[in-house]
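#struct-pred
JK: can someone run the complex with iron/sulfur cluster? inputs below
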Amino acid sequence: MLEKQNWKSKLAHSFKNIKDLYLYLGWPLSDNINDVASKYPIFIPLSLATKIKEEGPEGILAKEFLPSHLESDRDFNSFGLIDPIGDKSYLKAPQLIHRYYSRALFTPTSICPVHCRYCFRKNELSATEDIFQNDFEKTLQYLKDHAEISEVIFTGGDPLTLSNEKIEFYLNSFEKIKSIKHIRFHTRYPIILPERIDTGFIEMMSRFSEIFKTMSIAIHSNHLNEFDESNSNVIKLLATTNVQLLGQTVLIRGINDSENALIELFEKFIELKIRPYYLHHPDRVHGAMHFYLPIARGRLIYQGLRQKLPGWAIPQYVIDIPEGHGKTPAYNPEDYQYSGKLISKDGRIVDLKEPDLFV
Ligand code: SF4
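RT: done, structure tokens with the ligand placed:
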């Protein structure tokens, strides 16, 4: 019970007010940053704010989690999209996005343990959005009617915001649908608020890993500086279960857009028994276009990873083609230069011009 109160109370006492945060950091707050935060609010647990403070205003963590005046830059953001990956057109049942044949995304919460400034849902992280509206009986019915769906992927928001009891309720419900064999969680909690990975959660994951064919946790992390003793220890504990640990990383300008930064990160993943799974090219997010980099640059960085890391330590470098075309490899072995075309999941050639500003 103590553990439970601990992470919930830490979450509840996160910084949500920009003035309080800057007072704590002891850094000057400009009118511009104040304005940006009124459009794109902050959400930062105290433990993370402490790490941001220690690293300083030019640190990696400050860039990932503090507002920037570039979020309201008109030139950059004229290329940004509100729903950059086109999820809404695949919302087939309440909280269920069915875009890929055998997998469905389940979005039971809009709440995250932190607001990442580059987030692809930056403009949609609100409980009032369509993708978060709940009618679980209809969700279950859709899953029963679509036996091709063998994997349910808990996402959001961050699904570990739910209590253990709620997660257990969902898992028990999915277990009754025989076609569902795999469960995956996409989360930032192990890195941002490791207290969330409490004894009850670990026991529950272990138990359900005996019931489903695979239980996976895809841990979202972008830079070595996000790790410390506390989150490393929690991940080591998770690695003692039968749950498969995957790493997902967003390639972000100014954060990790170098071979060295990514190699250090993936070596840390390997040390903690996290398999690097996805390296996402940044989405074209309105309010986050300053994090974007050209595909040709991403390809050159990825080529460096291919030279220096063993194949099993290299994630797939993928890009989500806007307007719902889905994920596709971003690495093109024919040329590092980008032709302006990509092959979508269903084999179509899709035109996707890069804005001149970024080439
Ligand atoms: S945890 Fe994920 S969904 Fe939440 S703000 Fe960060 S990137 Fe967005």
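RT: quick notes.
The first strand starts at residue 91 and ends at 93.
Residues 2-73 form one domain.
JK: thanks, will look after standup
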